[in-house]
Specification:
single chain, 4% strand, 2 strands, 2 domains, mainly alpha, binds zinc ion, 49% helix, elongated
């Protein structure tokens, strides 16, 4: 390793970065596999997925060493990207509101004006989001 590794910004760069971390040489075969599976994934997410993979201490089926001690396959990285996206969606839903025009931060004006004070009530769409976010 040559000490001055810049932040990878392209797929070949991140492959080279990952290979360097595992003492491997990137080659056309690897690049082809990574391109085929990961071409549509933003590099930022791939960098995070690589870091997540390296932290993965799940024993690997091959020799029970932690999974993170192997150069990740494209499928390994895709799994990390998916997991991260799912958890971010859940976080967003938990904090967020339904986004409907009539919804004011989780409250809506009561449907029926009873002639007295205008009333607000919990937005049913937000409640649904929060319940589904579990
Ligand atoms: Zn709402």
């Amino acid at each position: 390793m040559n000490g001055s590794i810049a932040t990878p910004k392209t797929l070949p760069e991140i492959l080279a970065f990952a290979c360097a971390a595992y003492g491997r040489e990137p080659n056309d075969e690897l690049l082809f596999a990574w391109r085929g599976a990961l071409d549509q994934i933003p590099i930022r997410e791939l960098r995070e997925a690589l870091t997540e993979h390296q932290r993965d201490i799940t024993p690997d089926g091959r020799d029970r060493r932690p999974r993170g001690s192997w150069l990740p396959s494209p499928a390994d990285l895709l799994a990390k990207v998916e997991a991260k996206r799912r958890s971010e969606n859940t976080q967003r839903t938990k904090r967020g509101y339904c986004g409907r025009a009539e919804c004011l931060g989780g409250w809506v004006w009561a449907e029926r004006n009873t002639g007295g004070e205008p009333a607000v009530t919990r937005c049913p769409h937000c409640r649904e989001l929060w319940e589904n976010a579990g």
